Amino acid sequence: MTPASDQTRSRLRYAADDRPPRLMSFIIGSQTAVLVCVPVVVVNTIVARVANQGDAYLSWAIFASMVIGGLITVMQAKRFGAIGGGSLTVMGASGAAIGVAVLALITGGPALLGALVVASALGQFVMAASLSHLRRLITPLASGTLLALVSVTVMPIGFAMLTRVPDGAPAGAAPTVAAVTIVVVVGLMLRAPRIVRAWTPVLGMAAGCLTAAFFGILDFERVADASWVGVPSAASPGLDLSFGPGFWILLPGFLFVAFVITVRQVGDAVRMQRLSHHERKAVDFRKVEGAVNACGVGTLLSGLAGVLPPWPYTAGIALADGIGVAARRVGVLIGIVLVALAFVPKIAALILSIPPPVLGAYIMVIFGVTFAQGMRVVFREGASRQNALVAGLALWIGIGIQFQAIFPSHLATPTGRMLANGLTAGGLTVLLLTLFVELTGPRRRKAEMALRPDSLPELDRFVVDFATRHGWGTKGTERLRAASEEALLCLLRQEEDEHTPASAGRRLRVVAQGTRDGAVLEFTAATRSGNLENRMMLLGDRPDPTSERDLSLALLRHHAASVKHREYHNVDILAVRVDR
Question: CB atoms < 10 A from the CB of 577, how many?
Fold first, then answer.
């Protein structure tokens, strides 16, 4: 564990299963829900206005996005069977889908958008069921780069808002309002006590609005005209199931956006699991699959409503990492309040009335932090030359595309518009480069055998042959043999009981791949329970000498440089790295 991880864990006040005081949970949940309304309203407003949709569709899109985001936030926290990640994950309308959504609305209106979003939801469910096969593409490098690219796509919106003031406003109004907002938000984030830090967004925006009122650019007439309670009429005429040329032309773009959202969901689910416990635990990828399934349910509902699909917002990570609150109870309250706020039209009117320089300044600060968090994820495993090249190139291609500095004339074509979003272009770059590195890497050697004790000789022959082909010395070969033997014994012993043999009819697939400093052995089997990483953490420095299971774990930990155990719903994958 890194010192940074230790520091983060020590700041955690309420873990996922803790129950904070009701009043505190309600305050944090209500405040976060109100803040989540801001990006939901802003993203839907951008899409509706650029696509020349009327106020009726905008009102419906905001309402439906808030209701669906709140329901999926509750689903992520509560976890219903295989749906939900079991963590504080706040969901809302996805900024990654802005580009393709605008094209769909222009081409065929909400009905075509709904059909394409439903199709992408089906793709998400397939990806959730195939996470074990996609693990080489959905890596920390990909998820961290995409998180940074989210900031790249949102920042231009923030920059544009900084200078938007009514005609006739004083010359210094925009920069002064933005500066006050930034100073208050940054000052509170850096130096405020933890209890005050939770109110940073509210206090920062309040300071900006007061400054705007001083300059006479604060107008709440829209809020006064809006009703307190109401439900907009449904603006979506259903799904366009004619499957015309427009559907097939836009479908690849929507499927790629679904993949981007899935990568983002996986990255956030993994990060939230690491932030949500007082003690260090291995990531449970069955819950990660559940988080992607919940996101798929939200995408399906969004398609039926004819609005943007959801994805995870940074609010959950900010609560856990910033003020030390990762309790699922807070996630449930955020979702409930978000749904309730959807029935209060004054909330959307209030957000639309906040002066753009205030929102722009707040977006700059928040997504500046998001960019840094993405880079931290990228380089957590080490700033290798390969990772730096892939992340750096993807980021600058995304920035160039987003700011129309790369082939702007080509991006203006109907086909080019599908790649005219920095997240899409940069995400496609990082995924293609990751795939290239994967396909051109050292050749893997594979073997398959029965998962039972008498397969040890067969496994040993496979490992010795691999070491001989790669020119390993005697000591390195013996260490590799010992690690592979203990890995197999651990897989067998973790599921033994008094009635059923652990090997009943199951197969073991072993993949060996050489690395610069050694090799990685990957054991794939359909196991039943128990995570070896967690068992090793609980083992301590003094294993029980009478327990064969403890001795196998201790020996595996001794011979291996690292052990990673990923548990999925359909398969377990144990990756053991051994140095020469």
Answer: 17
Q: pTM for this structure?
A: 0.76
Torsion of the alpha carbons at 92, 93, 97 and 99, rounded to the nearest 10 = -140
Nearest to 258 by CA among 142, 125, 120, 143: 120
- Tell me the C-alpha distance between 298 and 291, whole Å: 11
Tell me the β-bridge partners of 449.
508
- Crossing angle (nearest 10°) for helices 456-469 and 474-493: 150
Half-sphere exposure of 174 (CA within 13 A, CB side): 16
451 Cβ partners below 8 Å, 6+ apart? 491, 492, 502, 503, 506, 507, 508, 525
Pair 476, 467: CB distance under 8 Å: yes
Neighbours of 137 (CB within 10 A): 15
User: What is the Cα 579 distance to its own chain's centre?
Assistant: 32
Average confidence (pLDDT) over 215-235: 77
Which run of H or of E encompasses 449? strand 444-450
Q: Are 293 and 79 a contacting pair, CB within 8 Å?
A: no
3-state secondary structure 542-580: CCCCCCHHHHHHHHHHHHCCEEEEEECCCCEEEEEEEEC
Backbone angles phi, psi at 575, to 5 degrees: -105, 120
Closest to 303 in 3D by CA, of 261, 355, 360? 261
Digit-coded pLDDT (tens) for 249-286: 788 778 888 888 888 888 888 888 888 787 777 777 88
Digit-coded pLDDT (tens) for 152-174: 877 887 788 888 888 888 888 88
Beta bridge partners of 450: 507
* Structure-block tokens of residue 20: 């904070």
Question: Which residue is listed with tokens 């051994």?
Answer: 578
